[in-house]
Amino acid sequence: MKILLAVDGSSYTKKMLAYLAAHDLYSTKNEYTAFTAQMVLPTPARVALGKELVNKFYEDEGQRVMAPVTKFLARHGITAKCIWKNGHAGELISKLADAEKFDLVVMGSHGHGALVNLVVGSVATQVLAACKVPVLIVR
Predict the structure, then answer these.
(1) Which fold does the domain 2-138 belong to in CATH?
(2) How far is 90 from 84, CA to CA, in rounded Å?
(3) What SS3 string covers 41-88?
(4) Taking a C-beta distance cutoff of 8 angstroms, is the pair 138, 106 a contact?
(5) Do residues 81 and 34 make contact, with C-beta atoms less than 8 angstroms apart?
(6) Which sequence spans correspond to the domains of the chain?
(7) 93-102 tens-digit pLDDT
(8) What is the dihedral of CA 95, 97, 101, 102, to 10 degrees?
(9) C-alpha distance across the termini of the chain, in Å
(10) Dihedral-angle region of residue 87 (phi above 0 means left; psi in -120 to 50 means alpha; beta otherwise)
């Protein structure tokens, strides 16, 4: 089974990973990919900083998010492929899940509630709406 773990470095990611461990959902038979999406820096900031510094920032941020995830997974005998991209998280997660033919997307939810979701939206809601792959949301 190909499983996409959508992570953001928050406590909700930690809860999602712990949930998977507590429910014996880790298996060396499965193929895991950890994915995080980073917001694109505003154009004036990218121009002022320059391409090299911006790329280093994105690389550092991706590694900052992935380091504890890969460490946690390794403790459970799992090696995951790590991917990070820049853009809107919900869109990138659902596109990756469909394009790479994942069997399952697993992600944590911040659980802001209906009012906040109405105003600012929710990554989990966006993934559920756009993804053709089953999604497990851990709250």
Answers:
(1) Rossmann fold (3.40.50)
(2) 13
(3) CCHHHHHHHCHHHHHHHHHHHHHHHHHHHHHHHHHCCCCEEEEEEECC
(4) yes
(5) yes
(6) 2-138
(7) 999 999 999 9
(8) 180
(9) 23
(10) left
**Looking at the predicted structure, is the pLDDT value of residue 33 above 90?**
yes
Tokens of 27: 């298996």
Pairing of strands 31-38, 135-138: unpaired
d(CA 95, CA 102): 10
Positive or negative, the CA dihedral 20, 25, 27, 32 is negative
Question: In the chain, pLDDT over 70 holds for what percent of residues?
Answer: 91
Ramachandran quadrant class, 121 (left: phi over 0; alpha: psi -120 to 50; beta: rest):
left
Residue linked to tokens 């992570």 = 7
32, amino acid identity? Y
